[in-house]
Amino acid sequence: MADLLATISSKTSAILKLAKTFGNAELYEKISDLKIQLAKLKTKHAALINENRKLKTELIESKNNPLNYDSAVYRDGKNAAFCPACYDSHHKRIHLKPTLISFIGEELSCPVCKNEFADAGKNRRRGRPPKAKPDK
Ligand SMILES: [Zn+2]
Fold first, then answer.
1. How far, in Å, is the centroid of ligand 1 from the Cα of 48?
2. Rounded to an integer, what distance in angstroms lies between the CA atom of residue 73 and that of residue 121?
3. Ligand 1: distance of its center to the CA of 88 in Å?
4. For the whole prediction, is pTM greater than 0.70?
5. pLDDT tens, 38-82?
6. Which of 5, 4, 1, 35 is nearest to 17 (CA)?
7. Residue 99 — φ and ψ, nearest 5°?
8. How far apart, in Å, are the Cα atoms of 10 and each of 5, 17, 34, 81, 118?
9. 95-107: per-residue pLDDT in tens?
10. How do the domains of the chain map onto residue ranges?
11. From the CA of 8, how far away is ligand 1's center (Å)?
12. Cβ proximity of 95 and 81 under 8 Å
């Protein structure tokens, strides 16, 4: 596709030069407009190539390390917690950060959407009793 765009750009420049040589102002203007549209197409093409590369990387990551929904959060094979709001709405894997450990388990927050999640299942999985709230 990039080769095709380069060829079209080259041919358009040659036609533009001919229009100038023959003094055809209307043709020159139309070819100039065409070159502007071609530049926009090249920019869009580059953006799509980058997006495609990013999506391929995400797809490989998803296949190699799938997420499972568990006690209000998503977890990968290494038991890392990910934000369900970001994953469900934008399919982005955002690591949750622990903010508070209470008697019901750990509270996690998302650095992107700022949602907070009670992760009651974490202590159950580790086979230890939940930590008590510190006395004030
Ligand atoms: Zn989030």
1. 25
2. 9
3. 9
4. no
5. 999 999 999 999 999 999 998 898 888 899 998 789 999 888 999
6. 35
7. -120, -25
8. 9, 11, 12, 52, 60
9. 999 887 766 677 8
10. 2-64, 68-126
11. 44
12. yes
